[in-house]
Amino acid sequence: MFNGIGVSRGFGIGEAQILERDQPEVAEITLPESALGQEVERFHTAVEHARTQLRNVLDLIPRDTPGEIESFIESHLLMLNDPMMHDGPIRIIRELRCNAEWALKQQRDAIVSVFEAMDDPYLRTRKDDVEHVMRRIQQALHNPEGESKPEAPQDWHGRIVVADDLTPADTVHMQHQGVAGFITESGGQLSHTAILARSLGIPAVIGVHEARRYMRNGETLIIDGQSGLVIASPNRATVAHYEERSDALKRRIHELISLRDAPAVTLDGDPVTLQANIEIREDIEALRKVNAAGVGLYRTEFMYMNRSDVPDEEEHYETYIAVVRELRGAPLTIRTVDIGADKEIDDDQVGPLAHNPAMGLRGIRRCLIDPTLFIPQLRAILRASAKGPINIMFPMLTTVSEVRQTLALLEDVKASLRREGERFDESIPVGGMIEVPAAAVSAHQFAEHLNFLSIGTNDLIQYSLAIDRIDDQVNYLYDPLHPAVLILIKRVIDAGRTASIPVSMCGEMAGDPRYVRLLLSLGLRDFSVPPNAILEVRQVINSTLLADVLRYAEKIIASSDPEQQNALLEEMNAGVDSIMEQDAYSALFH
């Protein structure tokens, strides 16, 4: 048995297909001046070959596939046009008078080192995309006539692919060919490959170190994408056990589909607002299919990625208007851009990388320092608010003085729009993300100035426990049940209740069915979760009798023993179907 990180819940049973596709060895070759033009042309040809391969992948994607699947492949196509990816190696070829392979490797090392220095988990994981695109170019240089598919289609059907890493293009190929699942030796929960596996419903386990060393081609594998467990050469009884679990999961999917139109309300009659987190416009379709009450978190920083310029006011406005129209009257909460010092947009404005970007110039701190980045977005949000219900939410608040500064700036923008005769919602609700422990402790002060609060548990837990959850050396300490974390969450909820303003939670903890009853017991009544978690969370809410579970929250907070806490949580969740597979019913979104 092997343990890894489950990233796409569900079960896969099939024969192992070991994928050996290591990067070709690269050596430096010094070229004469007369050969540099031909070498640059050779590099251009390899880039074009890589582009053709990715376009062929796009042709394989069915029309009814979720929009983010295509967008990930298109992002790799855009990266091929990026000056760092395209012009950088050419400059190195000419400066060092070296071969294209060596120039590409030098540029790859330089870019990856920048990403590895980043502290934001999502941005740091984007180094995988750089690796994937550059590997594709490198392979085109090594084998100009080769195909992008490493195995024939028939070799993938019903198999469990075991690889060092997989690109988004590989993942699309595998889904198209009907694989049973995949295992990788590297990768993170926030990698595009992991996100695609969840969206496509492919059971997957990543981070199984040296998997290819110990697994054999053709042997039977079972993967549990929820627990991250991999079983090699199982006996018949084990296979039968997982086949039964797989059948139970199919029944579970059918039950969840029946909850699409059910209201979110506890057995005691307490209504709960259940909204969705979105990142791109295409997520709206998934939101509709599960009948979410609206968008509780729209992450706008994705508008800034995979480009060399900054979106202007009109681009912001057109994007928000399109989302408002598609929501058809449901509320939209737009979080203003949360880009830190580790994401360079303009060298003249950003300056050198921070030593610790997660605690540096990010979120509202960055926006207040750089109004030229902030004001166009505020203007666009306000203008869009004339077309439908919109809330503004500010990230990474630490002090009340930041709130005062931000509200003053917002009033200045409103005054400017009035002078121009632009319409907007004069009483647009303004809220703040509570993700810094200092803000959680003083949440009652923030509640005096804002219309709503939203708890971002991903950062709140990391900052409270001083750990990086994607660092496999310390991520065992990432514990949503830590008493300090629960006390901070309850403090924020209580502050909202005292001030009579809503408090929502938009972090991963809100979308994990294991914690729903606990959060309800702490007083949370507004959840914002990924669209593919909504039905599972709704099912837990609708099966919860608060009178029976309220007593557990105090016991869990009071306990200092993680085993006892988990036992209490399990007891609290009695009666909830033990198969919690919020990602496994992704077929709903196809």
Short summary:
The chain is α/β, with parallel strands linked by helices. It is 48% helix and 12% strand.
Blueprint (SSEs and pairs):
Blueprint: E1 2-3, E2 5-8, E3 11-18, H1 36-60, H2 67-81, H3 83-96, H4 100-116, H5 121-125, H6 127-142, E4 159-163, H7 168-177, E5 181-184, H8 192-200, E6 204-206, H9 211-214, E7 220-224, E8 229-232, H10 236-257, E9 273-278, H11 283-289, E10 295-299, H12 313-327, E11 332-335, H13 347-350, H14 363-369, H15 371-384, E12 390-394, H16 400-419, E13 430-434, H17 437-441, H18 443-447, E14 452-455, H19 457-465, H20 483-499, E15 503-505, H21 513-521, E16 526-529, H22 534-542, H23 546-558, H24 562-572
Walkthrough of the structure:
The structure is a single chain. This protein is an alpha/beta fold and 590 residues long. The chain has three domains: 22-142, PtsI, HPr-binding domain (Enzyme I, Chain A, domain 2), CATH 1.10.274.10; 151-254, Phosphohistidine domain (Glucose Oxidase, domain 1, 3-Layer(bba) Sandwich), CATH 3.50.30.10; 258-576, Phosphoenolpyruvate-binding domains (TIM Barrel). Helices cover 48% and strands 12% of the residues. It contains 24 helices and 16 strands. Strands 1-8-7-3-4-5-6-2 form an eight-stranded mixed beta sheet. Strands 9-10-11-12-13-14-15-16 form an eight-stranded parallel barrel, surrounded by five helices. The longest helix has 25 residues, at 36-60. The radius of gyration is 25 Å and the shape is globular. The two termini are 33 Å apart.
